Amino acid sequence: MLAPSLLVDAVWEVDLDALRGEGIIGLILDLDNTLVDWNETYVRPEVRRWLCAAHGRGMRTALVSNAVRGRRVKAVAGELGLTPVTLACKPLPAAFRRAMRVMGTDASSTCAIGDQVFTDMLGANWMGLKTVLVRPLSQRESPHTRLIRLVEGPMRRRWARSRRAMSPRMSAKV
Question: Residue 29 pairs with which residues in a beta bridge?
């Protein structure tokens, strides 16, 4: 229930053509430490290029965030052409359902990408979505997330070891 479908170092390493080949047309994206550093609005050029490539392939995108500052979420979403879903309460399924509804996708055609196991991966896996776990962009994060990372750490290390054993590629299946 917690393990992601794929592990990658950064969102821009997600192979969009491979996802399209699997029938994925919708991307549910986390904000903090997935698209931007925690609590920031600056978007790295690599993220912009990757999102432009996703949109160029006809992929639909939604930004689903638990961030309390909805104005910041909406500003980044607007800047990047993403549909925002704020105050998501991930891992609860409602936000994932809302995102799929606005994108016009279902579980079989949607992939969720995020940096946290107990919010992004757990919630998306409950919904039966393909999941991609990325490394956090920044070491800065909220105090409660730092505590949760202590539990996530051993799982991430185990998944990374199995990934290396399976394939030298960065986006190996778990």
Answer: 63, 113
